[in-house]
Specification:
Elements lengths: L15 E9 L7 E8 L2 E8 L12 E2 L2 E2 L2 E2 L2 H31 L1 H21 L1
């Protein structure tokens, strides 16, 4: 089974509603997630390990082989949400910096443009 997408974690079904994933480390080893959700009708924050990519399982916590959320104490919930939001922004910023660096590499951009134009030329010839 491996990595469990936190957007699909809705267990226990009669207690967890309105899951809004704030942070997801993604399908990699050591992946974890944090979400705002309704638990028994009240606002709550849940956290979980999403599982290891190459290992069977559904991550932790789980109940009867179903992935679940660990509901964090309210005293630390907002701190965790703010930290998770910050991590999410940092990952987005890193991705953006990567795209900017690629765009600034004029030699690579020229090669990509040449490849794209050749591909389009091949497509037009195929018609």
């Amino acid at each position: 089974m491996g990595y469990t997408n936190p957007h699909t974690v809705r267990s226990p079904k009669d207690r967890v509603k309105d899951v809004e994933v704030i942070f997801d480390k993604g399908p990699q080893d050591g992946s974890w997630s944090l979400a705002k959700l309704k638990f028994d009708g009240s606002d709550a924050v849940g956290i979980r390990w999403n599982g290891e990519v190459a290992k069977p399982g559904v991550g932790t916590p789980s109940s009867r082989s179903n992935p679940t959320w660990f509901i964090v104490p309210t005293e630390i919930a907002e701190t965790l949400v703010e930290t998770a939001k910050s991590l999410s922004k940092d990952e987005h910023k890193t991705l953006l910096e990567g795209y900017r660096a690629m765009a600034a590499d004029t030699e690579r951009e020229a090669e990509a443009m040449e490849w794209s134009e050749a591909l389009l030329g091949d497509l037009s010839e195929a018609r």
